[in-house]
Specification:
By secondary structure, this protein is an alpha/beta fold. Helix content is 42%, strand content 20%. The strands form 3 sheets. An 8-stranded mixed beta sheet has the order 3-4-2-1-7-8-9-10, sandwiched between helices. Strands 13-12-11-14-15-16 form a 6-stranded parallel beta sheet, sandwiched between helices. It has a two-stranded antiparallel ribbon with strand order 5-6. Helix 1 crosses helix 14, helix 6 packs across helix 9 and helix 7 crosses helix 12.
């Protein structure tokens, strides 16, 4: 069984959450005999085909980008050629250019869409795109939502109840093998006390400005891992407030991230807009048995983190509420530990890569047989 995944970016050119999900789907379905490849775009002039994590990645150079939608003329011919060799086309939404590819190349292979997120920011362009979007989602054979929360709150998905199923994103714990004692001791020297951890790309919907404002009412160190488009303004904001408990680490290695996940007291995830559809780093925290703090935004974040069971859920865009939640976990270490244990148990029941791979394989098999 050969599956072609189609998305605008992929490793090693981009390191976002959707890319990580594609990788996890590919690796977890390979245990069922699925052979996968990826078609994506790149900003660089690159080798047309490379191998990443053991599977081929076919890349075309992006020639134009409109509203976070990279495009390239060369991809039409490439997609047609690759689609002929595939048994199933697996699109990852949103990428409006993929809708054009689907129709322009007259794809008649079984197709599935993983619906990662509604289009949130480009509201004016969304009105122009909606007819094409509806036609595209109508034409594909199956749609996968990543959480029941997102399925129930997405107006777009509610138009396709009969062809949409929920498959939660899963992670493979073996990829996060325990970091060395030497590495952990180095981080312990830098952060010897309890600290809260945020990991992610610095984007407008991540709510990091809320976390920075909350830090004024918190004594506990807050370690922020990542980088992104709004990095400068976030650091400037923290400096203006004179905060000494906010620590920006920038981009770090996977091994360093694992060490920090192991050592952290809790995970803080202040995303405040629906553009945050799931929260991979929140799930990483659950996988390591950490209590979590997140906001109720009607998406997968509150499928991972259940209020008062695996952590605390607060209203979005509420710095005072976030500070109160942080302090509550700090002041109640036994309770925090219990929440973390339940978070890990929930990960094991619902969010393993093995479970996700088995369920995607079932979708593929139904499409073919």
């Amino acid at each position: 069984m050969r599956v072609l995944h189609v998305y605008k970016t992929y490793f090693p050119d981009s390191l976002g959450g959707v890319e990580q999900v594609i990788k996890e789907v590919i690796l977890s379905t390979s245990a069922h005999g699925v052979e996968s490849s990826v078609l994506s775009l790149s900003l660089q002039r690159v080798d047309p085909t490379i191998t990443v994590y053991g599977h081929p990645v076919h890349r075309c150079k992006s020639t134009i980008d409109v509203a976070s939608t990279p495009m390239a003329i060369s991809v039409f011919k490439r997609f047609s050629k690759l689609a002929k060799k595939a048994d199933i086309i697996h699109y990852h939404f949103p990428w409006p250019f993929a809708d054009l590819l689907h129709f322009a190349c007259r794809i008649n292979k079984p197709s599935v869409v993983t619906y990662h997120s509604d289009i949130v920011k480009q509201k004016r362009l969304l009105k122009l795109y909606q007819p094409l979007c509806k036609k595209f989602l109508t034409s594909v054979d199956s749609i996968v939502a990543t959480s029941p929360n997102y399925f129930s709150t997405s107006e777009t998905l509610q138009s396709f109840p009969d062809k949409t199923r929920v498959i939660p994103i899963g992670l493979d714990k073996s990829y996060y093998s325990s970091s060395s004692e030497l590495l952990k001791s180095q981080w312990k020297r830098r952060f010897p006390d309890k600290f809260f951890l945020f990991v992610g790309v610095f984007r407008y919907y991540k709510g990091l400005h809320i976390l920075i404002e909350a830090a004024e009412d918190v004594d506990t160190p807050i370690v922020i891992v990542g980088s992104g488009p709004i990095e400068h303004e976030l650091k400037t904001h923290a400096a203006k407030l004179g905060l000494t408990n906010i620590h920006f680490l920038g981009s770090i290695s996977h091994e360093d991230k694992v060490a920090l996940l192991e050592l952290s007291y809790a995970i803080v995830f202040p995303s405040h807009l629906r553009a945050e559809a799931f929260g991979i780093s929140l799930l990483e925290g659950a996988m390591f048995g950490k209590p979590m703090i997140s906001s109720e935004i009607g998406t997968g974040t509150t499928y991972i983190n259940i209020d008062q069971e695996t952590g605390l859920v607060i209203p979005p865009n509420d710095p005072k509420g976030l500070a109160k939640a942080i302090n509550a976990l700090v002041d109640n270490p036994v309770w925090a530990s219990e929440l973390g244990a339940k978070a890990e148990k929930r990960y094991q029941a619902l969010f393993t890569a093995e479970k996700m791979g088995r369920e995607y394989f079932d979708v593929y098999r139904e499409l073919l047989f």
